[in-house]
Amino acid sequence: MPEVLPAEVVDAALAERGLRWQRDGDELVKRVKRRGFSGALDYVNQVGALAEAADHHPDIDIRWGTVTLRLSTHSAGGLTERDLALAAALDALD
User: Rounded CA gap, 47 and 50, in Å?
Assistant: First the structure.
């Protein structure tokens, strides 16, 4: 099972790696704006492909033109390197 990272390690990694996510307790959160509902769905399909390849899946909330992603390694009970790695991969979609 992946090791849960302390909050200060996650915060430092976000800054050092230039990741565009916020830590919210035991989750990484990112809100992405897209043009309309179909743009949001297109983005979610791209997220899904990367998540499947990583075998690690974010929680996804789709609103008209806005997608909110939440990452956490639920099986470990917090944030792990898997979350940081997927966050970096998802940032590349922007």
Answer: 5
Is 41 within the bounds of a domain?
yes
- Both tokens of residue 86? 């997927």
| Burial 57-72, CB ≥16 within 10 A → b, else e | ebeeeeeeeebebbbb
Of 78, 57, 81, nearest in space to 69 by CA: 57
Q: What pTM did the predictor assign?
A: 0.94
What is the tally of structural domains in the chain?
1
Q: Which residues of 28-42 are buried (b: 16+ CB within 10 A; e: fewer)?
A: bbbebebeeeebbee
Mean pLDDT value across residues 11-33: 98
